[in-house]
Amino acid sequence: MTRWPRRQATAFVWLVVALVAGLIWVSAEATIRHQEDQARANALEGAMLRARAAAADLESTLEATAGLHILAQARATLLERGDLTGALAIQFQLQALALRPVFGISGMAVTDRQGVVTWTINGQKGNGQKGNNQGGGSGHAPVSLADLPYFGLLRDTPATLAVGQPRSTLRFADRPGLPVARELYDRQGQFAGISVVGLDTQALARQIARPDLRQQGLAVLVRPADGQVLVRSPATDSAGAAEPAAVAAVLALARTEPEGRAPVRNPGTGRWLLTGWSGVEPAGLLVTIALDAGTALADTRREAAIIRAVATALSLLDIMGGGGLLLLRARRRTAEALAQARRAQQATEAARAELERLVASLPAMVYHGDLAADGTLTSRYITANAAQVIGWPHDRLPPRDTFLAHVDPGLGQEVAAFFAGLLKGGPDTLEYRMARPDGSWVWLRHHARVVARHGEAGGEVIGSLADITEERALRAQAAISSQLASLGEMAGGIAHELNRPLAVMVMAAHNALAALEDPEPDLGTVRGRLERIGEQGVRANRIIHHLQALSRPTNEPQEQVCLRSAVEGAMTLAGGALRQAHVAVENLLPPDLPPVLGQVVAIEQVLVNLFTNARDAMASRPPDARRLRLIAHAEGGQVVMEVADSGPGVPEAILSRIFEPFFTTKAAGQGTGLGLSICHAAMREMGGGITARNTPEGTVFRLTFQRVPAA
Questions:
Q1: Ordered structural domains, the chain, with CATH
Q2: Which of 175, 274, 302, 569 is the most exposed place for a label (fewest CB within 10 A)?
């Protein structure tokens, strides 16, 4: 690993420390700004929602006053008709409604065309009085509202609702209130006076502001037409001082936005107000809520102080960590410098010794060389254990041509093709037998791989040769075990096959003896019986010969084999078992099928294993549905044979594993798991192969053999 100079490493560490500290503070300030923006937005939204709620409450109150006006209009109409009883009933109803605390009414009055109060309700005393232009006969001076602006507005214009200036006491009541007036009409639709309802200003102030607003800001009810503040809520000194600025700003914004929210700066103090407003229809009023930004954002600013304190602590830890890292690095460099020379020397010596030991103990000889396009191998390096693995010392290995001369004659061409095919992407593993210098044979597994190519000239190769003589012996023993197991499974069928010629021989012998006991024996008949005995003996001998061939290993070289004869030999052993299991065999091999390269015994063993597996697979099918079909055809340089059964097939999940050793789908104790593995190995050793697939009718095993070249 490349090490930096000390100064560069130190500068880099402090640069990282500075970057981390900067990131900490940038993140902290970004978090603070985000929280403040979010809190400010929430406060503005809250102010607008409060203003909206207060406006809705005021509209409900104005709707209640509209109901009182409707009753006042009905009373005036009844009086004009002379219905004093009806008018008195409405007066009582008006008095009952006006005195309900829920409406917050401080008084109510009705005037004539000149503005003189003709009837009132005092919200405090709760008594109804009737007046007249001369004072009502009660000893009181007449009360006139003609000089008030809202009376003139309703008299001279078609306005249906007018809101007056709030007063400490109303002329027609003893309590302060905000007058809300509406026009009265006579029966001809002419102006007949007004009805005025005084709304308690203290109740209105409580209505437009919640109790917690006193500590955060203020609420005001404004008449936009003249900018007059009609009702204001109790507020802190700072909030009260900010009222003019907040009202002026809101009135300017409300001209284009009947409802909204905006921050407003108080020019006198420089403090920000978070305002929200909403219109009150149809009175043309405006409710404004103004929150002090410092109070509304107090919690957020406390959180900001905590975040900055945490950022400071993290920055200090970052600086301490950078200094500690530099100190630790300095100590480590010093220790490594003292031990580096010793470690390097010891590692070199240990590596050399370990490499020599490992190479000497490898179970395979490893080589490295150049492979020419014609398959000629030139060695660059060969491990010293060549003599232990293949019997030839690494400095006495024969050249390629001589090397092939020591290979089993039946495999020489295959080994030559192996070398020539490596550069063409052919198989990279081959097993063959080779003669040692002392004349003994050793089975080798040759594995090679092209690691670099030199264009058309060849390539660089790394390979290994491993002694698999014992492995082959074990494999042969496993094959014998599988063969014996197969013979054991077919014992009943084989006994039946032997019993038939023996029974014929016994019967023929009895008949011959009986013919000889005749005073004049028919020698022709006796001769026929003896010939029959000889024929059946040959048949029994053939069965025993196949049994012997399958029960012992074979190392015979490959030869020309007729597949039809191999099938007949396999049926000699397995036919009885198949007939006992009610399996119908369809042998569809054509008579002109070309011969193949292989070993008769090995091919018969493969077929016997496939026949017995098919018999077991079809055991669950009805007897009349058990069919075994054999077909074959030539395909280029190969001969393909298929063995198809009518069983349930092999589950797709395990189809790729059926050729693995000791893998079986049979119940415990009913199979060794070696049959298909041995079939696979036998077919591969003969230069062919075996595969399996499922079809709708059952399982098909496909055997490929090397075709005997034409002479």
A1: 362-464 (3.30.450.20), 477-706 (3.30.565.10)
A2: 302
